[in-house]
Amino acid sequence: MRSRKSEPWVAKHDDQAIPESVQRHILERQMDDAGLIICPDCGQPIRPGQKKAFDHQVPLIEGGVHGEANLRAIHEKPCHQIKTAGEARARTKARSQFAAVHGIKAKKSRGFPKAPPQRKASTELSDKFLNLKRK
Known about the structure:
By secondary structure, the chain is an alpha+beta fold. The chain contains three helices and four strands.
């Protein structure tokens, strides 16, 4: 691992792509003594060619910074999926608890409008037609 002379990278906006040099720094930071990059969620190595996600330790929606100090590399599947789903469940629970405490009720949907009644035939089928069909 090499020493760092410059300040850690911080994005100018939340959608900014993470530069390759910063990705390299993050991977080096997570490298163990044997040179393997370890996933902090499951403790297993992230092997070359395996899909990885650069995940925010503190999610941006919770005030986390889109910067090098708040980023870590984890397995794309299943680690990142599990973490993201857990965060979404926690946010949903917090919102519903907030709404319950403050008496906020969700609006009920009126649903789809009723369909107009189907048209009926303007004339009854003649006996002649019905007899042809039976033959």
